[in-house]
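[worker-b] picked up task from shared queue
[worker-b] task type: protein-ligand structure
[worker-b] ligand name resolved to zinc ion; SMILES cross-checked against name lookup, match
[worker-b] sequence length check passed
[worker-b] input payload:
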Amino acid sequence: MKAFFTDDQLLHDPQQYMRLGRIHKPADLPSRAHALRDALALRGIALEAPRDYGRAPLEGVHSTDYLDYLETAYTLWRELKMRGVEPGIEVLPNLSPYYSGTPGVARAPCPSPSVVARTGYYISDLSCPLGPHSWRSILRSAHTAVAAADAVLEGGGAAYALCRPSGHHAHRDRAGGFCFANNSAIAAHRLWDRHGRVAVFDVDAHHGDGTQNIFYARDDVMTVSIHADPSNYYPFYTGYAHERGIGAGEGFNLNLPLPHGASDEVFLQAVDRGTAALRDFKPEALVLALGFDSYKDDPISVLKLDLDAYRHIGERVGALKLPTVVVQEGGYMVEAIGPALDMFLSGFEAAR
Ligand SMILES: [Zn+2]
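[worker-b] inference finished, payload out:
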């Protein structure tokens, strides 16, 4: 199996993360990527650097004004001086504009050119600080997903994208939950361009809200997400079972929220429900949004999976025998994510 990553993805080094009214050290540490890389090396899988595709593959799922913002925000921020106040070391919002719109439809561009206004408009929470090199990492993480999709399109069967920063909370025009560009959606769009009928299966502990939103009105891209009950867990506002899609997309989004504390058995039952729905949909290719923050000792987990669960998830996804791009999403216990990836790949490869 080919796997992709570039050291450019380590440049994003967030310093601040506000949670429960306190500033914490962020959970998305560059060392996460090292742990995953080391696990791949033990399996004899060497990482290849993606080529530089520029912004074009991101434009397929994100709005131009949003990408313009991400690319320029840090520079504009550092130039700010408001009433004698120096800006902080990273771009962070201090506004949360009200929005009520149609899922799957991008908003109009931010009406104000102010970087303060645009930061509130495009960054939805306080887990997504933009530092001096964040854009480079965001762009290159997306390229890693594109390169994995291209490897699958070239007949590779399956490929792994070691994406960091993660992507599945990024909407068409909004960052959130450590995510800026939706790598899984970008990979899906790449596959769709060739195949016309693809699915995204998200097994991260959090609802893949950005991915759902991007494809919500579509009947040619199915989205299935297994995650902890969002009524008391990020992303809170979406991820409920009654969200089934809209318009032509009705019936092509499936959410399988699980009670907090759910064990391997409960999670794997949901995986079986998800794969059954995918078999009914009959996609030509699959993106697996793979997170390890469902592990019982993960610092932000409310699920209780053992490492062995990832082997069983791998078996079930591998048994679909679809061209598959595996995109790395969350997982924040640095000591656990390498073994979790190894478990997943051993199950996945054995089943194919
Ligand atoms: Zn997560």
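[worker-b] attaching auto-annotations
[worker-b] The longest helix spans residues 134-156.
[worker-b] releasing lock
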